[in-house]
Amino acid sequence: MILLDGKKIADQIKAEIAQEVIQLKAAGKKIPHLAAILVGHDGASETYVASKVKSCEKIGFGSSLIRFENTVTESELLKKIDELNKDKEIDGFIVQLPLPNHISVDKVINAVDPKKDVDGFHPANVGKMTLGLPTFLPATPYGIIELLKRYTIETSGKHCVVLGRSNIVGTPVSILLARNAYPGNCTVTLCHSKTKNLKEMLLQADIIIAALGKPEFVTADMVKQGAVVVDVGITRINTDKNPKGYEIKGDVKFDEVAPKCSYITPVPGGVGAMTIAMLLKNTLLAVSK
Ligand code: GUN
Question: Is 99 a pocket residue for ligand 1 (Cβ < 6 Å)?
Fold first, then answer.
């Protein structure tokens, strides 16, 4: 079993981007600047956004964190998005999800200028991705693809079972892995809450992408010997075992599944680390848009 070390690969990618920043500076060109909008105080969102901002600082990008309380109105948020769309200093920005229920996620995503949409969530960018045209790929699916690539994992003709059909992970990763490209050329089965024979599906999988947000859902009896398992889950479970008061669990029961795998991602230190690196890569790309 080989561990897909997302942390190590993400550090490599960040080092590559930092080199590019040095070159941009030397050439007197604009330094990439990422802005993040955070609404409310959700613990996980706070952690992700803080990590995104810190990573920007480390690699030499500019960064801005724009905070709103949970009570922000939809029109106030849309006004800020409009400002960021027009702000020449900012190359790309994200609105951290989830948002409070009184705000339409669709309206927010549609309001972002596709040229600054480094999350790759705008319908124009989703459409381009689906057609295989160059665009911003959503960071988590992009991170999964990049991880498979950097470990030179064979994907052509493989059966890939994706668990979860979210717009952020399951749906886009299923599209990317089915494309006529490397990594890609998989036969993809996209499973979701209404799928009936889930275990049978999983047992046929050469590659499993678990992105359903149910801690330790995938157990050893659901996994074929030699499978590649990518765990996208990051659920906080309350515990008094550590000072933080919580521990992070993936969607895969790692200890029992890992011995059956050819490759598996750990949680944490797998896909999560890659997501941030790919967001930075998209921000670098945004400078030239
Ligand atoms: N919430 C969970 N994942 C993401 C992501 O990739 N981007 C944004 N904006 N919000 C998220």
Answer: no
